[in-house]
Fold each of these.
Amino acid sequence: MSRTRRSPAPVAALALAGALLAAALPAGADAGGPGDLVASYIDRWVAFYPSRAYARGHAPSAARFEQVTPETVAQWLAFNRATAASARERLAGTGLAAERRTDLAVLAGAAEDELANWAEDRPLRAQPGWYAERVSQALTHLLVRDEPAGAARSEAALARLAGVEALCRQGVDALETGRTLRTEAALRTLAGARTFYGEGLPGIVADWPRAAEVVAAATRAADAIAALEAHLRDAVLPAADPSPALGPAVYAAKLSRRTGGVYTPVTLRDTARDEIRRTRALMVDEAARWQTSLSPAPPEPLAGEALLAAALAAMEDDRTRDQAALLEEFVTLTAQAEAFVEAEDIATVPKPTTLVVDLSPAHFSGAAIGGVYPSGPFDPGADTLFYVPSIPDSAPAGAREGFYRSFNTHFNTMIISHEMFPGHYLQYKVAVSAAPAVRTLFASGSYTEGWGSFSEELMLDAGWAGDAPLTRLAHLRKRLENATRAYVSVQVHTAGWGRDEVLAFARDEGLLAPQFAINLWQRVVNSPLQITDYMTGYLVFKRLYAAQHDAGAAPRAWVDTVLRAGPLPLALLESELARAHAAPPGH
């Protein structure tokens, strides 16, 4: 069973000296085989990204924080260039075992992504959001995990708060430019974090060892955040680039890397358009199934778009209306989904379930969306954090209505498959125990979100929630939203679409729920490639599952194989599945 824990949330943290980078293997060094190359890269990654490492269960990183200076970045990029070259050289050779070849391909892709992202995005001088996310996330795992405890927890908090303060000072010195919308989003995130440090954290740490020191450090961090906010408002925003678009060339390069060359902007746009048409037709069919289920039957049956609008309205009307009820609904659905997966033999569920379900904190940058923060390969038994989307009960009535109409009971019943069972919780719970660490540390977004999206359909087809028409309709609406995301991503970043075009398309073609329509513009600006993963990954999983079904494979055996392989790029996953299918029984 999952458990509910009252937790605070995000902020950011302290410094790890560049000496840790220098102490690792010399660039290009690989004393042994491919495994040594992978292991040395993970060691250096832990040193460079201690907050990410701690989130993935690396306990020694609890009291460390990124010291990302021009010097440490230069060292990191040199190491990535050497690693990518060495990995590609080995992949061009012969004699590698299949699993080693897969891991080296993942490693090469991770190193090449680091090189491209630092070169293209220039986070130190041109990405206010890069700073804001680290400031807003620093204490997330420290405040909810059981370890470190006691005085060690206080020491880690002090170190991370010092890191927040130092990072904010660095941002004031280094940030020169940005994009207008992303800078405005960063300001909102920073304001929430500043309020949390100044007003929320003192109450949380009141009974900790060295509480007075922690509160004083939080006050200094809040002051440093305020200075960074002032710098963004006074120096960065006036000179910011008002265009939200990456531009055709940059977008095409990022898309090619993310999809392994499968998609160009044109093919992604056309695939998304086809998926929108196909899904809209399925939604009308599902609305008709809903209408025939009504008792008594309506005196004047509806048809077409009028029927679909009525079905969507009925779906949105079935909802909770406050935070406590929403949290209770998600906790209950999580337990029910776990039991259903086991009863229907959909997947093997590892025990014990290690899961914390709680409301997303108000100051958290993703509060209106929520999210899943999985355990990692350094501590596979650690809790996964499932932050349920939230809106304050004190928010204006119109905002609360729009939020709860979006997170209605049918949507929540459907989305629990995506987020928990057999989606993200189960996916990572299996992978961090069964797959090589390199695969979960550098997970494929198309696998991760594609699996979550396909899980919705897998569960409904198995009879989850009785495959009720409005619950199936919620899935189809989400599938339509995923295609809409991909379509508008291309249009914004290569064809000059602005906010008005995006919101009109989201409303008229994408049929997005109110909350998701509001969020779409920010996501297409701030996460333009990530939002394409849902559709591209879903389409691959749908094809792969159909192939195994036609071959007569048992669903659970296929699901277990997919999850145990880890979140691989989908071309590599397909090869893994082919080898598993060809292997003799017992191998």
Note: The chain has two domains: 1-242, 315-567.
Amino acid sequence: MLVISGFVATSQNAGNDLIQYVNPFIGTQRMGHTFPGAAVPFGMVQLSPDTDTVGYEQNGSYNPFVYQYCAGYQYDDPTIVGFSHTHFSGTGHSDLGDFLIMPTTGKLQLNPGTADNPESGYRSRFSHENEFAEPNYYRVLLEDCGISAELTTSARVGFHRYTFSKNAEVNVILDLMHGIYNYDGKNVWTFVRVENDTLVTGYRQTNGWARTRTVYFAMTFDKPIKNYGHKKYDNTIYRGFYRKFKENDNFPEMAGHDIRAFFQFSSDESGMLQVKFALSPVSTAGAVKNLTTEIPHWDFDKTRYNGQELWNRELSKIRVETLNEDDKTIFYTAMYHSFLSPVLYEDVDGSYRGLDQNIHQSEGFTNYTVFSLWDTYRALHPLFNLVQTTRNHDMIKSMLAHFDQSVHPMLPVWSHYANENWCMIGYHSVSVIADAIVKGIYQDNLEQALNACVKTASYPLYDGLNDYIKYGFVPEDKSNNSVSKTLEYAYDDWSIMQIALKSGDSRVYKQFEKRSENYKNVYDYQSGFMRPKLSNGSFRPDFDPLNTHGQGFIEGNAWNYGFYVPHDIESMIAMMGGKTAFAERLDSIFVLKLEDEHIAANEDITRDGIIGLYVHGNEPGHHIPYLFNWTEEPHKTQQHMRTILSSMYANAPDGLCGNDDCGQMSAWYIFSALGFYPVCPGSDEYALGSPLVKYADVQLDNNKMLTIIAENQSQENIYVNEVLWNGKVIDNHKILHSDLAKGGELVFRMSKAPAAR
């Protein structure tokens, strides 16, 4: 029997392996939207089961149930429709789910069927008792056909192993219609070639979140194909002279908008069939080369363990001791989530498809994609500046390549698979670039980086930016979500200041210094809130600070966004009446109640992710608990840290209080559990909190070691009486990255009571 005990997978490798503390099922139940399948760190292939085929559209409008399937897998579902090779982790919108494979025995069925009636299609029932997952390995029993399905990967290749009853006739269905956030017409074109009796190649082009996305594949079997065919589900009238062939039966070319193909295999005594499935952003030839280079053999277990060694290497960059095993599992699962994306996006020869849809060659860097920057600039990329410096450097090079290929031109906003999808607000690539420059991670061509950032921040067609430059704020009567945009633009402009400072460009520095103060233009002294302003200079009437919709904010309200001035906190405090008044306002956010009417319209926020008015289940307020450090009551930062760490994360399928958003929610946890956090990426400072760990060794990428010790650590000792860096007392509740990067010992002396002031 294939079992998971307490949802914690046990590694078959050495006893010291950290993958045994990873629970891939955390976040598989609605909020979190993670997937439990197989992937190597930052791998292009993210191979996972999909449990249903919910469409994006319902009766001519958006189907709210599709939101639950952002990653394809729902823990409470009773059936699996198959295993697809591309997934997002924790996003609030979605795409991908490419190339779904499903093995069956007996009668061939090409329709997926329904969860209520799985016999009507190729899907299968499954049970969590017969399901097992750990990094780079997934296994499940497909009950209806009695097939044990196992998955593992290399960076660009998915490896399937199916075990079934001896002498069973096996069908492998390749569903080229399946996708995540699917709708009629999403498939632009699909093409399949049966190259020989074991190799199949092809591609699929889709119009979804990425409106022009093409993915190529090469699929090979370890047994010869006996029969194959396909069925078209589109209504294409014109067939040309292909009509002279019986295309659906053993014809080696398949093409159409909507296709499901099948491959049948003769029975034998082995009771096993293996499939390798490689991806490429460039060509089928590239996919074949990726396949033969990365997995030239048929040793499934070797591939599994090679990938798990990669995970152990990455997880070992931070070794922690915690008060209990659940905390350790949550910590290493957070690291696992944080190292899933951005993903590799080039072939083994360095070729990749660019934003201009041409083929480019990466020169001196590895190309990445999936940049959820509104989320990940806050903590994920700063985490990379500690423990993934080479990759973060290459991610910035990938962003600059995106800029060079952009016709606008702009750096990425939210990009994936050679497409800009323009999701969310701001231009937060500049924050990622500034943070890496300030911390010494990116030192290549600062003039090039500054030019890309300045042009991005000057593109007049982008999201109210022209009016922002004209008025000094985004007017609500000209562009919605105006306050959120103004505040985030002002922070991004401050980030550009930091690059200009490092580049020695005083003209750009002064220009963006002025723009960085634009947050002041949307602060209403009378109400005490950031508030939408109209182009005539007056504040928008009928203001409700608890409401999100129509109030000038996106995925937040005036309470969440009211504290979003991370680059000028002291001026914000003075503007809001000084430290005492500011601390009282911070207190209010944790004790007032957000009524259900203000939650109901936000599908990515539930009450599970809320404390008072503080919404930890979404990103805009992630820095708020640390702001007590700028008042006379820093112990409240420590208090709230421990409350959030213990209540917003759990070792369970519903263990994330909101979308993980490509690792941001998890990166927040890692920083905060270690005892510090980058409140303002682009600066050298971290704010100190209250560590959850007892002890941690952080292996920095410069071969230095950062050791963190929490003396007298316990569930009750949540306050920090004293902090020492290399034996010297810290008295300002902050520590510098430039100090930590040198290695050393950070000691927190914990207590039940706040430190005397």
Note: Residues 482-503 form the longest helix (22 residues).
Amino acid sequence: MKLLLPILMLAFSLTVFSQTDPVVEKIIEIGKTDNQTMDHLDVLCNRFGGRPIGSDAYENAAEWAASKFREWGMEVDMDLAGELPVGFNRGPWFGRMLSDNGMHLHFATPSYTSGTKGVQRGHVLIEPTTQKEFDRMKGRLKGAWVLIGGKNNGFPIDISEKADLKRDSIIQANLEIAEQNREIRRENREKKETEPKKEEIPYIEEPALFYSQMREAGILGIIQSSAVPIRVMYDRKNLMNMTFDKLPTVPDIKLDEHQYEIIEQMAKERRYFELEFDIRNHFKMGPVAYHNVIGIIPGTEFPDEIVIMGAHLDSYDVATGGVDDGSGVTPTMEAARLIMEAGGKPKRTILVCLWAGEEFGLLGSTNWIERNEDKLDQISNMFNRDGGPTVPATMEVSEAMWDDMQMICEPVNGINPDFPLKLVKRAPRERPEKPWGTDSGPFAVKGVPTLGFWNEDPKGYNFNYREIWHTERDLYNKSIPEYQEHAAIVNAVVVYGVANLDHLLSRDGYYIAPKVEKKERKKN
């Protein structure tokens, strides 16, 4: 009888929660009949576009999101998270090859790199890789587009003083290798035909090895081969040291590898042709502040206790951030709207956090944590969505949270039979010493639970996140509306349920202390 009683009580609580909580029922009803997730995504992608911090698009998106939170009756905190020394706005870009077999060029440039000075046309050279090659061609570098080696990894060639020193050291080392190779060739010439020849020492390879010298010689820009879809990010190594009086001056073009191969072969054959580019990369004077946008639904009984649901508002701008992380921002916003529209009055405070600068190194979430250390113990859970427009399918739940989450998630399986949500037991894991690559990472380092959903593509829409991640294909039309809309309802139901518990979610057995702390305890 003692064992039966708690089982009956749990079954009763599950039934009562799903059938009698009018807010949950209303959330589901509105979410199924008037879901606005894709409307939010349309505005975010097709009105503002790509949103790197420091851009007008990011600032406009932040103001818009804040205005929507206020419209829905929420409090808003435009949370200053940092500033950049200069800002950046991307305009259109065009390119073509001018020759008998001319073609329009498929390319992109990382943000915070130089554009052209209007339409610029020039001949094409392959970069010099030794001092001898540079000396032979330096007179032809002025007005040239230069093909450089290596493969695009999304970031521009490093143009810092530190990089120049590295390149200078390689140039010097290659001069010494050249001298050694001359001696090897001399020795080989003196050997008899039957004697084994000594192999020459390979030169050290480095893309844009003579970058500074080529820039001083007057090149128009550098061009590097890129896999398709083209991935471009930003100048992470130099951005924080830029000033408006000292900006990049040489375009760094990442060109479709198939077109690069054709152009490289023509250049090797010393055929005459020209490339023409018009790249409108624009800077603005700084400092440029960036903000986390935090919508607040105040708690009625435990206002100092918090549930966070969030996603990062910033994105790269070669596309429009429809997936990374529009697929997180807009269901999160819609979840907040559903809670408010359903008349939700949670017992503890819900913070709807649209983070800034995730793509630049988790800047917004890390900064918030640094300024809010005193609140971390009062966070019941940090829900983060940053994995693409697929549907919540599984949630790993610790033993101590199991009963609470089973009760909270029970209504979810009544929303759409095509998208069941499965709870599985989560074994304790070591608390990370360093954050992983999304905004839940810094919270995990501090021991805050980051319980979330594993998403799937149950209907087989062949979604491929790697195809889209930081590439030109990160667009509105890569979203999957029925998954996105369902995710918004699930987020709303679960977040509201956690906020409406009589207690914080238990952290027992969620994390194991990191190895560093274990070692410290042994020393003490």
Note: Residues 1-18 have pLDDT under 50 and may be disordered.
